[in-house]
Design a protein that fits this description.
single chain; 148 residues; alpha/beta; Rossmann fold
Length: 148
């Protein structure tokens, strides 16, 4: 099933908090629902940004995933988006238009088919609120993809 899966790519700045939560929550629900969709995530910022992260995944994301019964992918460190990598995905979702549209335009101008959500980063919105809204967005996406 996995090699025939359709793929979703979640993008955020550092691939540490929002996109990692979205990837793991999407995959948890898709597996539970028997869907043939698979999510991955990447970061848009330059590699130096990840030096400030205290580990492979934000503790807030780990806590929220565990609270919801999903297993966090804590063994994988943040990954940067590479040129052209998005072409193997059926859907590309950046998690904050205001923050990510300029990063995409500057680093990947040929990436034009992007859906933008409005989920703020750590320090800009309380994590329980941001991750709750993000979970709802992921659940809505899975409903939308049901027929695809």
């Amino acid at each position: 099933m996995r090699n025939e899966s359709k793929r979703v790519l979640f993008l955020c700045t550092g691939n540490y908090y929002r996109s990692r939560f979205a990837e793991d929550w999407f995959n948890h629900l898709a597996k539970k629902q028997g869907r043939e969709w698979l999510a991955e995530s990447r970061g848009l910022a330059n590699d130096w940004l990840w030096l400030r992260n205290s580990g492979p995944m934000a503790p807030e994301a780990i806590h929220e995933l565990e609270k919801r019964g999903a297993k966090p992918s804590v063994k994988r460190w943040p990954q940067a988006l590479k040129a052209g990598e998005w072409r193997s995905f059926q859907r590309v979702i950046a998690l904050n238009r205001e923050e990510h549209k300029p990063l995409i335009a500057a680093r990947f101008p040929e990436l034009s088919d992007v859906t933008y959500w409005d989920i703020k980063d750590l320090g800009e919105e309380e994590s329980a609120s941001a991750l709750g809204r993000l979970a709802e967005q992921v659940e809505n996406l899975l409903r939308e993809l049901r027929g695809q």
